[in-house]
Amino acid sequence: MNDAHKHRARWRDSLHAVIFEAETPAGKWFDILLIASILMSVLAVMLDSVGSINLRYGSFLNAAEWFFTIIFTLEYILRLICVGRPLLYATSFFGIVDILAIIPTYLSLIIPGSEYLLVVRILRILRIFRVLKLVQYMGEALLLMKALRASSRKIIVFLFTVLTLVIILGSLMYLIEGARNGFTSIPRSIYWAIVTLTTVGYGDISPRTSIGQMLAACIMILGYSIIAVPTGIVTVELSKVSSRKVTRSCRDCSAEGHDADAVFCKFCGAKL
What we know:
mainly alpha, Four Helix Bundle (Hemerythrin (Met), subunit A), Helix Hairpins, 10 helices
């Protein structure tokens, strides 16, 4: 019984190395094949939404959809088998993304009938979320996510400051221009301030008075300086996480981002 347990542990470790570790040859090929499957499945969903293509190749695209769904289902089951804590992985970000990648196809089977066509259409569009599965196979994307998490509090404060700023500027423009120049309400004026501050400039509303144009010019210049702030915040955090990039994955919770000399997982405490 003990030998069988050891054999099962070795089998799970080997499977974990292929699925979660990108440094082994088998792991690299697994990632390459899975990325290709994700891209082709998303392309199939996009092509299926084109009426002329759907009329000619609808059955083929439907068969392709089921083929990819079965592949992703098997992949999800194997991931749950090889991690020590399946529930922890299933409730993680990537575990939820994996579920989103396969559930819509199965749900479309139990929602038949013409009156539910709109619902089925929505479920089919949800398959586009498979593109999120690509994130876990790109080391740089994982580094960016860690940098965003580390800088989230600073970015929230920055966004709150910008929100306060556009409310004040929008209210000022409402007082200056008024309804006669298109600024019919404070919310509409705030919309104009957001569009102007972000340097988008749709042009559907524009100030007519000299004072309003001067304020608009100041907001445009302010917009260029504000854009640089979140970029700098994320860049600093990105440089920090890049200096300690490690691709080892925990066998229990599948978490990454451990230090090079780490012995135990800093997320669940399991031995690496």
